[in-house]
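re: ur question from yesterday

yeah so i grabbed the chain u mentioned. its 429 aa long if i counted rite. heres the sequnce exactly as i have it in my notes:
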Amino acid sequence: MKSNDWDVAYEWKAVALLALGFGLVGLDRWLIAPLFPSIMKDLNLTAQDVGNCIGILGLSWGIFAALMGGISDKIGRRKVLIPSIIAFSLLSGFSGIAGGLTSLLAMRALMGVAEGSFCPTSFAATADASHPKRRGFNLGLQQSGFALFGLALAPIIATQLLNVMSWRGVFALVSVPGLILGVLMYFVIREPKAAADAPARASAHGGSHSSAAAPAARGNWRDVLKSRNIPVAMAALFCAMTGVFVLGAMLPLYLTEYLSLDTQRMGVVVSAIGFGGFIGQFGLPGLSDLIGRRPASIVGFAGTAVMLYLFRGLGAQPVQLFAVLFVASFFTLGLVSLLSGPVATEAAPLGMISTAIGIVVGAGEIFGGGIAPAIAGFVATHFGIQNILWLPICAVLLGIVVSLLLEETAPARLRRRGGAPALELPASE
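ran it thru and got these C-alpha cells back, copy pasting raw so excuse formatting
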C-alpha cells in the first residue's frame, strides 16, 4: 500500500467484524425476552422480576458506556474491545446456569458492564477505520447489526432452539460466536495510530496534524461537553431511544390487549422493528453523508412522528401495521445510529471520539432505556394501553426541535459550502 492510499481492505474487514460484534451484543441482550416464559416457570419469577432483569442491564450499560469510552481513548481500543466481547459472551452463557433471581440479576448487570464498554469503543474503532466520506454509512452499518440480530432474529432463534433444547442450553450455545469473534478481532483490529498512514489521513482532511493517539492531545470529559453538538446529541438521542424502548417494551401488549391480535400475528408485526431498524441504521446515516447530519436528523424525527401517528389509527390489520412500523423503525433506529455515530464522532475533541460517544450513548441508554419504559408503564396503568403511543410521538416531536440546534459537521456538506471540515479531525485518531 502506498503512503497516500487509504487502506480500504482493512476498513472493510474492521467494519465487518465490528458490525458482527455489535450484532452479537443485540442478540445477547434481547435473546432473553422470548425465553422469559420458560425462565419464569423454572425460577418462579414474576413479571416485575422480568422488568428488573431488563432494566438492570440497561442501567449498567449506560453507566459503563460513559465511563469506558474515555478509558479506551487513553489505553487503546483493543484493550477494551477484545476483553469486553469475550466477557459478555461468557456472561450470556453463564445466564443459563442461574439458579434464581439474584444470580440472574447479577449476570445481567455484569453483561451490561461488558456490553456498555464494547459499545462506544466499537463505534470509535469503526470511525478510526473509516474514510471520512464513508464514516456515516460505516457507523450505521456497524450499528445495524444490533437491530437485525437483537430485534429481528433473536425471537426466531430463541423460539426455534427451544424446540430442541432448554433455555439454559440456548444461552450456552449463543455464547460461542462471540468467543470466536473475539479471537478474530485480536488478529485484525488495529489501534488508531496504526490504522492508516499519517499522510493519507492528512490528505483526507486537507492538511497535516499530529496523531490524536498522543496522550498530550487529550483533555477530559468536560472538554467533550463544551462541544455544542454533544449535549444536543444527548437530548436528541433521549428522544429517539424513548421511541425505540417504549415500542420494544409496550407494543406487544398494545397489539394483543388493545388490538386483540393473537401471539403469532403479534410476533410478525413486532419483528418489523428489527427489520426496519436494520435498514435504517445504515440507511439514514448513509443519507446524512449526502444531505448533512442536521437535515437527516430532522427528517428522521419527522418521519417517525408521522408513521407512529398513522400506526395509532390502524386497527387489527397485520400487513398495514407491519408496513407502517417498518418505516417508523427505519427512521427511529436510524436516528440512534446517526446521533451516537457520526454526530458524536464529528463533535468530539481531538483524541476523544470514544469519550464523546460514551457520554452520548450513556445518557440515551440511562434515560431512554431506563426512565422512558418506566414512564410508559405508568401511562399504560393509569391512562390505558391504547394511549401508550402518545409518549413516543411526543418524544420524537420534541426531537425535531432539538435537531434544529445541531451544527452541521458532515464533510461533504461542509465542502459544498466551501468551509473547512474542522470537526472531521477526530476521525484521524
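noticed a couple things. The mean pLDDT is 82. also The chain has one domain: 8-193+220-413.
anyway ttyl
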